[in-house]
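#lab-general

N.A. 3:47 PM
ok so I finally got the sequence cleaned up, no stray characters, all 487 residues accounted for. can someone with queue access submit it? mine expired

B.Y. 3:52 PM
send it over

N.A. 3:53 PM
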Amino acid sequence: MSDKVSRRQFAKIAGLSAAGMANPVGAVEVNPAPPPRAGTGFPAGFVWGTATSSYQVEGAVNEDGRGASIWDKFVRIPGKIEDGTTGDRANEHYRRYKEDIALIKELGCKAYRFSVAWPRVFPDGDGKPNPKGLDFYNRLVDELLKNGIEPWLTLYHWDLPQSLQDRFGGWRSTETCKIFGDYAAYVAAHLTDRVKNVFTLNESGRFVYFGYGIGIDAPGLTLPQAELNQIRHNSAVAHGLAVQAVRAHGRHGTRVGPAENIDACAPAIDTPENVRAAEIALREMNGGYLNVIMTGQYTDAFLKFAGANAPKYTDAELKIISSPVDFLGLNIYAPQNYVVASDQGAGFMPLPIPKSFPHMNSDWLRVGPETIYWVPKLAAKIWKTDAIYISENGTSGDDVVRPDGKIYDTDRIMYLRNYLAQLQRATSEGVPVRGYFLWSLMDNFEWVYGLNKRFGLYHVNFDTQVRTPKLSASFYRNVIATNAAGV
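B.Y. 4:20 PM
back already:
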């Protein structure tokens, strides 16, 4: 599949682009490194975790009363999934969750980010809840805690109940937003006695544009720009309603925030004027979602570029959208824009990305480690947050199983080492990044790529379901043990 249908094609999926603005085996064991010198590692208490999502790993799509999701329908449209696979079986995590939690513990992770499958808990999205669905997440959470792993829950990672798509057009309707708030309230009431951190929606920038704009993701629609902007606004309303629901129905002290694939902007050259340009670009290129969540306003530049396609909204909706959050989750993989200062337009100019720019196994995944330094640093300043979590970062790789049965994924180690070094640089300067969730715990169903792209620390044989640690699992274990990037 070409780059234009990649997993996280960041181009034109967030911020001003939403308004129509186009940009011109077993692992080999290694001796653990000595503890870092004082001041050279990550802050004490830094949260090290890993992550998955429900549709990508659970399988069991027809078991124990689970309803259909939009992905269950979408994967059966011929040609939509590169290798023709589905998430029907995936990693069988629904049955093998104890085995998988043991893998997390083996890494030394103290946190695990997972998502609740909305149609597993409410088969029709609303109405009568499914007790067997909730029971799975109760068992999952209890097993995590039993193993000393903190559960971090995501309410929505793209598996919208098909019933809501059929009845209301999915996120095209504010009815779906209201129902999402009710769902969030139910989950909060039943799980936050043990789950203390909740992400609302994962990557509005992806599921809106890919699902409703260019038809690459579920539900596979191609709607005009004005509708896309309205859908993104609706998703921001849904986020706000979920925040309010968690506040009202969760246990005291439960924290809540978004997890967004931020449109990542970095200065091409580290000069004061270019850094300032990158700051402006980060705000404006994320003007259609994150900025309105964090400030309660659409920027003038966003509305100007949107023009007649701007979303319709009320002051009451802006108040809901900007319900105060406890942290900001940022999914950071690759640089979207390198920018320089400009006396034209908003004060920045995105630069073209050369074809020779280095990238990983996935063409869209450019290697720009400095991105994970600049984006949190600028985001903390723009939105005045004191708690940022890297809710996703990682890479696909070739992951060839060698004759000795092992996977020497030095490409992934290279990527992680360089990104984590830049993240360590940020925290050493006081940037308030409090934790990091590596994507992903194990290879899984990778959306439009099916089973073809592998992001896991653990290799999965999807025929036998055998999990095998890659060399990168040893690398990450060492990072966690030393609380340092290992550079």
